[in-house]
# Entry
Amino acid sequence: MTSANEAEIGPNADLDEIKGLMRALPGPEEAAAEAARAREGRLTKPAGALGRLEALAEWAAAWQGRHPPRADRPRVAVFAANHGVTARGVSPYPPEVTAQMVANFQRGGAAVNQLCLTHDAELRVYEMALDHPTDDFTAGAAMGEADAATALAYGMTAVEEGIDLLCLGEMGIGNTTSAAALACALFGGEARDWTGPGTGVAGDALEAKIRVVAEGVALHKDAIADPFDALIRLGGLELAAIAGAVLAARMGRVPVILDGYACSVAASVLHAVDPSALDHCLVGHCSAEPGHRRLLQAIGKEPLLDLGMRLGEGSGAAVALGVVKSAIACHAGMATFEEAAVSDRADGPGSG
Amino acid sequence: MTSANEAEIGPNADLDEIKGLMRALPGPEEAAAEAARAREGRLTKPAGALGRLEALAEWAAAWQGRHPPRADRPRVAVFAANHGVTARGVSPYPPEVTAQMVANFQRGGAAVNQLCLTHDAELRVYEMALDHPTDDFTAGAAMGEADAATALAYGMTAVEEGIDLLCLGEMGIGNTTSAAALACALFGGEARDWTGPGTGVAGDALEAKIRVVAEGVALHKDAIADPFDALIRLGGLELAAIAGAVLAARMGRVPVILDGYACSVAASVLHAVDPSALDHCLVGHCSAEPGHRRLLQAIGKEPLLDLGMRLGEGSGAAVALGVVKSAIACHAGMATFEEAAVSDRADGPGSG
# Structure
């Protein structure tokens, strides 16, 4: 695990440079995808019998740019930051819980620690200046452009040579409020459509949270220049970092597994710029946070799991990693009909 | 891995004795379930935030009869047998493929081998007299009562001391035909409702398969004395073994993860005798075989995964094992609020 290091953050990151990367996104490696499809048809099973596992293996090959795809060094990256909007009472937990949970990650006591152990994934926790929260977005922009650029660049450091899958997650008291406002600004609709219980507000407290989201969106809406500007005005440092990590993973040929609501909203900033920008991303699960299903429709993603989870911290992505590892293991390790001397169907594979 | 051993099969198994076990099924261990619920509320997450993972941990505790539950020695048991009804041309694959796939399991080349490696599960393959298929159930009973008793008893041997989770699966060319007839006899409806492509029949071949199922059910329907008799008349040796394994797991306090259509139909013989008989069983996934969803409604089970898989051989159960291990790891390994010095919500956990 690493913690924030000022030297790593890249204090001179330039937002225009980061935006420029969006104009040169690499596509899937078609040769690897084709090799995956060809091998899939020869493995000892009826054509299509592994269902979505087959599509996952092809996806991993296409976006790793190699065949067979690998799942030998998965990383779970969790970005943690604080939010000025917590001053508006949007969460039942105090903002100190962000730092307390980071300490819990570091001691191995959180859900994501157990999930990384279960699925042999490396956990990295990126602590982002927890004593310097963003500003309250109902009073002004959440952050400055330079802060956003630094956070995006910091997120990009989560993609390192040798990583073959990247699960992304977040921790930040108040960040479902920020995510709701950002989603509303990016995809339209009402604040109510995007705002849910988060860690557990209900009744009057939920109504108050909806009003805070609506206020923030109303304050900034007409001034938002582009999706990155929406992130600056309504987002958070960890959300910016996740967007940066998704972008760096695309450049570095590392397929991504996104977690729940806040994580997916962060990634969807890139989708709002270019709808193909998340083609290398899988959404690991559908969160119980109600805005997540709406968001997944907006960005055209079918989640892998639907287990009613709503914890964040990369937990849903880490559970989904077990399925992705299963898919890659079957694809890479199964015998072909020829190797196993198993009779193929009389009318040939896939013909019925 | 083991292969069939006449000494293990228990040639003197008595069907009445096995049926007698159904009258004394142990229930869940309420103290363990209560301990799981109590601990769950103190773990460092908002109440309920792990969704279905929390229910899985409680289920495992209740049916293992201990707290915390464990997932240290999961076993995947695959039963393989042949079916006389293949003479009716119900499968696109020849019956020799059953033995060829058993050899593939033994050499490590099948999907279930890769999945067991991925999720650290022990694989046992139980080969059931592959050169002695059941009889064609459209001409008479598939097996005799003594064969059924032997197969049930053989299945029971899959539950051994020290196993903490049991995933069940099957391999048998023709067995979705047998499963469809058995499900139709147990739960009513038309042959068409329960008959699907299996390994891949479509069009005229699927219509012919539906007619075979209908013929078999029509031949036996009025004579079926009880659900075990339906199994004898329309089932298969591997299906009987799975029913035996499910029953032995209940007696031995081992929670079970069922696989797809044929496996779930086999287990549902016990449900037809006593609707509480599968309370210790989780259905790992919903198969793409269309009858599976109907069956799950009939037995009141919500599958864990829905990935369009339809391979059998325990593959869906083995993928689901990764989720169950995740749930047990989170429950057993996470820190409590007190241990981690994380502030709980001001209004107490679970109150909103």
Observations:
- Chain B touches chain A through 70 residues (CB under 8 Å).
